[in-house]
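Practice problem. Given the sequence and the SMILES for nicotinamide-adenine-dinucleotide, write out the predicted structure.
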Amino acid sequence: MKILITGGAGLVGSECCKLFASDGWGVISIDNYTRGKLFGKESETSTTMMDLRKKYSIEHHEIDIRDEKIIEVVKKVDAVIHTAAQPSHPKSIEIPMEDFQINAYGTLFLLEAVRKYNKEIPFVFCSTNKVYGEAPNYFSYKKIGKRFEPIDPTLKDGFDESLRIDQMMHTPFGVSKAAADLYCQEYAHLYGLKTGIFRMGCITGGAAKAAEMHNWEPFFIKKALTGEELTIFGHAGYQVRDVIHAADLAKLFFEFIKKPRAGEVYNIGGARKNSISLIEAIDLIEDITNKKIKYKMGPEREADHIWWISNINKARDHYPAWNIRIGLKEVFEDIYKALGKK
Ligand SMILES: NC(=O)c1ccc[n+]([C@@H]2O[C@H](COP(=O)([O-])OP(=O)(O)OC[C@H]3O[C@@H](n4cnc5c(N)ncnc54)[C@H](O)[C@@H]3O)[C@@H](O)[C@H]2O)c1
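Answer key:
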């Protein structure tokens, strides 16, 4: 069995490469290292691919997902996991055209290749909770300890897939991803493709490359290690996120590929148990690293969520063999360990 993983050098892509290669799949990765060009040298993912290829047998092509050459790859694989993206919502405000070209057009280009040349294979799409734009911010929250919590008790387990996606601000990233997300759904409804759409919040782990505009967890840890000042954007750091390790996410994709359910949409994150506010994260990181983080408050970011916890019940129902295995502290320790090595 062979799988195509786009963005194979990235955080999620590299975990998927590891998992499928360890399971005996032939893994073909596509990544043109756009991440380094977008976020700078420290975010470069080519080193991740070099390290991966020392340990696993992975066929890697340094090409763009919009390159016609990808069609020959699509023809010969049994599944696709599409992770390649311009992944940052603040960055998309600077480069809306490129963001659209990669996220919306790039995904449609791949869907078309699958539809025309290999229609029966499962296709996993990495969407985002940013497709919900500012919708979570229309709910009321109160401060409890060092975090916000919703007033409405029915939200205790987080937002499910019924949250509305339009008629508010998103940033271009939220829009380009929503377009790709809807195309993936449409290609299931209209053409019968076995697409699975996974809407994530904060994915992280040892393979995460720190940038201020993407992957806040390693970025915060780096600030602890260097002693440089960190800026927290808005909400006094009480905003809540739910963190999932990329290895846990890869396992869910594995389950989906074994038993695809065409056109289904899933909210995925670390859920209530792996939820943390930014200020709580600072406490946790200080505890793990034994270093103090200097920080100041900055302006709120556009369409940034005040509170997001993913309700993952639907994914758990559909894929009962899957669950979150890596706890919050372990996730942060893994990043710390990986940064210590660099
Ligand atoms: N990391 C998160 O917290 C998070 C949250 C929600 C959704 N997502 C989504 O999950 C997916 C994976 O995210 P990630 O954190 O692994 O991102 P990442 O930046 O670590 O990896 C993406 C990879 O895709 C490559 N890439 C970008 N454009 C490309 C192109 N045109 N052609 C070929 N390769 C290209 C990059 O070089 C990079 O190696 C993305 O679709 C992202 O939007 C991520």
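Check your answer against the key. The CA atoms of residues 158 and 309 lie 4 Å apart.
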